[in-house]
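The instructor's notes for this session suggest beginning with a concrete chain rather than abstract definitions. Hand out the sequence below and ask the class to guess, before any prediction is shown, which regions might be ordered.
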Amino acid sequence: SLHHLTLGMYRAGDAFENAEWVAKLDRVADRLDLDAAARSSAEDLFLSGVPEEERSKRAALAAAVYAGSLVAGDQRSQTAVAEAADVSRQAVQGRWKDLLADAGLEPPSW
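After discussion, reveal the predicted structure:
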């Protein structure tokens, strides 16, 4: 099952360089009451594909939280994730499948 997957496809320095964004991801996860597996998946997905542009990072964070919740089986709606991360639902919708694909994961087929 996917929820035992640890992606770990980022450099240790990426976590350090993006510590502020990881803290924001944790706050979003708190608002959504995500379990530890979903948080871990979300963080791995975010750090594996952090955009260069600062303005794109919040949408990438939201997409990672949504995709991480799917992977871990602790799913939240795109709307709930978008509200918790203060982005539009379209920002989540437009990014999460690519985020999974870039990590080598298949999106659910429902």
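Then share the key points. The chain has seven helices and no strands. The helical segments are 12-17, 19-32, 36-48, 54-71, 78-85, 89-93, 96-102.
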